[in-house]
Design a protein that fits this description.
Layout (H helix, E strand, L loop, with lengths): L4 H5 L2 H17 L7 H17 L7 H23 L4 E3 L9 H8 L5 H4 L20 E2 L18 H18 L7 H7 L2 E4 L2 E3 L1 H11 L28 E4 L5 H8 L4 E5 L3 H4 L1 E6 L10 E10 L6 E6 L11 E5 L10 E6 L1
Parallel strand pairs: 7-10
Antiparallel strand pairs: 1-7, 2-8, 3-4, 5-11, 6-8, 6-11, 8-9, 9-10
Helix pairs in contact: 7-8, 7-9
Organism: Dichanthelium oligosanthes
Keywords: Disulfide bond, Hydrolase, Protease, Signal, Thiol protease
GO molecular function, one term: cysteine-type peptidase activity
Length: about 350
Amino acid sequence: MEIHMASYFGNKPLIKAVIVILAVISTAAGLPSSGYEVEEPMKGRFQEWMAEHNRTYKDEAEKAQRFQVFKANADFVDGSNAAGNQYNLATNEFADMTNDEFVSMFTGLEEPNELSKGREMLQVTLDLSEGVPESVDWRANGAVTDVKNQGKFASCWAFSVVAAVEGIHQITNGELLSLSEQQVLDCSKTIFKGGKGGRLKNGFRYIMDKGITTQDAYPYVAAKRACRSGVQPATKIRNYRSLPATNEKQLARVVANQPVSVALHASRAFQLYKGGVLTSGGCKGQVNHAVTVVGYGKVAEDGTKFWLVKNSWGKKWGEEGYIKLERDTRTCGVAKFAFVPIA
C-alpha cells in the first residue's frame, strides 16, 4: 500500500493524538519528562524539610504554593553557597516564606523615617585616638541572657531594647536578669500598622519612666495585651541616647562599654542565614528589624572584621541565634540607628 507522507504529516489531529498517547506511556513507564530531574528531587527536599520543621498546610493548594516559595529560596541558598561567599545560607524554618511575608511577621520595627524623629544625640566625647579593644564579647562577660524568640509577632524592637537594658544592668550591678519584653510591649507606646510594631526610643522611654520587671514576673505571650498594673520593677535606666548615624567607629567605642540596640535591614540572606560573616553584598536596603550588638571581632583566617549581633528568632536560626555582620561596610545598615540605655 502506498503511503502519502504529505497527507500523513498534514493530519494535525492525528499528530496531537499520537503525542498525547506517547506522553501517557512515558509517564506510566516512569520516564523523565520536562523538568523532572529538577522538580522531583526538590519535592523530596521539601518533604524532608516539612518533616524536620513539623510543617503542615491547610490543603494541597497551599502546599503547592509554599513549595514554589521553598523552591525559589532553596535555589537562592544553593546559588549563594556555591558562589564562595564568606557566609553560608540554609533552608531554615523560614524557607517557605517570601522575604516580604517574613519581614511582616518576624520583625516589627516602625518605618525608618519615623525613627529619626525626635532623635537625641549621645552627649559624650569619644577619644578614638585611644582606640578600642581588638575584640569584645559581652556574652563572655556575663552581660547577655540566653537567646529569646519573639515568635510570629512584630516585637523585635522590644527584644532589642530589653537586651540592651539587661546588659547595662549587669555591667552596672553585677547581676544578670532576664527582663520582660511583654511589659515593654504592653505598656509602652506602640503602633501596629502594616506589620510594623514600635519604636526603639519608646521602649527605652518607658523603662526610664516606669522601670521593668523580670521575664518570670511578666512572661512573654507574643501578643499585645492590656498593661498590667502594680508590677514591681526589677531595674530602671536613668536615660537613653541615640548614637551618630552611620558611624561604625563610634558604635565600636560604645559597644566596647555596653551592648547597643540597633535597627538594620533583614534581607533575604539575613532571613536564611546559617553562619559566617554576612557581607554588605548580601544585605542592603531600608531598616526593618531591630537587634542588639553585643560585641565585635575579627575572623582569624582572613582578618575580616565583624559585629556580633544577638537576634530574637530562637537558637535554631543562624549561629545559635546570633549573626556576624561585616564591620565598617555599613552591612544591613547596622549603624544607621543605634540607641544606648544610660544606667
